[in-house]
Design a protein that fits this description.
Layout (H helix, E strand, L loop, with lengths): L4 E4 L2 E4 L2 E2 H8 L3 E5 H15 L4 E6 L6 H10 L2 E4 L2 H9 L7 E3 L6 H10 L3 E4 L2 H13 L4 E8 L21 E2 L3 H9 L4 E7 L10 H19 L6 E3 L16 H11 L6 E4 L3 H4 L3 E12 L4 E5 L8 H5 L5 E3 L8 E6 L8 E8 L7 E4 L21 E5 L2 E6 L4 H6 L13
Parallel strand pairs: 4-20, 5-6, 5-13, 6-7, 7-8, 8-9, 9-10, 9-11, 11-12, 12-13, 15-17
Antiparallel strand pairs: 1-2, 2-3, 4-14, 14-15, 14-19, 16-19, 17-18, 20-21
Helix pairs in contact: 2-3, 2-9, 5-6, 8-9
Length: 423
């Protein structure tokens, strides 16, 4: 848990504000983020890598709210984006186009053209088909696209199968052995300038060994490409640094810096990384209210107004999130399932969790919800999207309002033959 979320006088606070007071104004459920936590995480990483002059590009997919992007951009972060929508959010948040890297396995021609128009810093290309498409778009626009090849180093990050991206069986990147063929093809294209390589092996990585293996592979290929006459002046080292949700050992940033120094720092390349979860994960919580407690065989079901459509990680990734009461209560711990009201057995935040008893009206904080929480939410079961709140010491702002039922219904329309309101 971030140090900005603390318990004082029996109540959980975020910076100088009681979370319960925010809940009274905003209603539940809602997401709450700490500006101080975001700045602190960025500063810790930037300080650890300062001597190596590593640029930090925030992976927007972790939490794409423009207020989060803008907070990190004000600290010096660029943006790593994977869609045209994320590109627009990064630009709206004030990230300079030259500090934006466009990743992702497939980009539409419209997305490529929009990014070229705005002069983004780099396209990370992941296939020969994408390279050809980008060249066609750039040539038609009389532009030259700055390109980095995302290589697949066949390194297992040792994380959940759904967030591992660096093995040969994953859809991401080009086999690193094919890099010379890629750069040869790129050199013959009028709309392409390829002088960079990128690697990203997965997410929530707490063991640094896979990073070292991937970076050594990147180093060897960089030297080989240079011997073959290709100019490589930038290495994008990807993201994936993990955080503590339960009992993990968070990566030591000084050790991470030593790995970068030992593997690629002497190659006279610009270096960059793309953290996402590491910056935002423990900077946010989901606050939810207990609707009722249902006694079951051997356990209680604490049913909350928050649900899997608000935070899907537990059922999607079997992810653990610590759950804490906003107000401390006495009582012996019991075996509890914390579940939502959605009509799915997968609608839960915790199963068989030993927790203090709860009662209707209690407020709970689902910790570590700042990454892949709100950004993955949906309106399943016709539940409106919930608000996001950003705190800055003793003030807060609703950075995404709660969706009303009217707004949710307005997204859809009936064809004439079904609309009974029309003559």
């Amino acid at each position: 848990m971030s140090s900005e979320f603390t318990e004082r006088d029996g109540h959980m606070h975020v910076e100088a504000l009681a979370l319960g007071d925010i809940a009274a104004e905003v209603g539940t459920p809602f997401y709450c983020y700490s500006s101080a936590a975001l700045r602190s995480r960025y500063a810790a990483l930037a300080t650890a890598l300062a001597a190596l002059k590593v640029d930090i590009f925030y992976a927007v997919k972790a939490n794409s709210n423009p207020a989060i992007i803008a907070t990190l951009a004000a600290e010096g972060a660029g943006a790593d984006i994977v869609s045209g929508g994320e590109l627009r959010q990064a630009l709206a948040a004030g990230v300079p186009a030259q500090k934006i890297v466009f990743a992702g396995v497939a980009k539409t021609e419209e997305e490529l053209a929009f990014a070229l128009e705005h002069g983004i810093g780099q396209f990370n290309v992941e296939s020969f088909a994408e390279l050809n498409s980008l060249n066609q778009v750039a040539t038609k626009m009389q532009r030259v696209a700055p390109v980095g090849l995302r290589v697949n180093p066949d390194v297992d990050a040792g994380t959940h199968a759904k967030i591992t991206t660096g093995r040969k069986e994953n859809k991401f990147g080009i086999d690193i052995a094919a890099a010379p063929e890629f750069f040869k093809a790129a050199a013959a294209m009028d709309g392409i300038s390829a002088r960079s390589m990128s690697v990203h092996i997965g997410s929530q990585i707490t063991n640094l060994v896979p990073f070292e293996l991937a970076y050594r592979n990147l180093r060897e290929m960089t030297l080989s490409l240079r011997q073959q006459g290709f100019s490589i002046d930038h290495l994008d080292l990807g993201g994936g640094l993990g955080i503590v949700y339960d009992a993990e050992n968070e990566p030591d940033l000084s050790d991470y810096a030593r790995i970068i120094k030992a593997t690629v720092s002497d190659l006279d390349c610009r270096l960059s990384i793309e953290p996402g979860r590491f910056l935002t994960g423990n900077a946010g919580v989901l606050v939810t209210k207990v609707l009722l407690v249902k006694e079951g065989e051997g356990r209680d079901f604490v049913i909350t107004d928050g649900a899997m459509n608000d935070l899907i990680r537990p059922t999607l990734y079997e992810a653990f999130h610590d759950i804490r009461p906003l107000t401390q209560r006495s009582g012996d711990a019991r075996l509890i399932d914390v579940v939502g009201p959605i009509c799915e057995s997968g609608d839960y935040f915790a199963k068989s969790r030993l927790m203090q008893p709860a009662k209707a009206g209690d407020l709970l904080a689902v910790m570590g919800a700042g990454a892949y929480g709100a950004v993955m939410s949906s309106t399943y079961n016709s539940r409106p999207l919930i608000p996001e709140v950003l705190v800055d010491y003793a003030r807060f702002h609703i950075i995404r309002p709660r969706m009303s039922y009217a707004e949710m219904l307005a997204r859809d329309s009936l064809p004439d033959w079904l609309d009974k309101t029309k003559p």
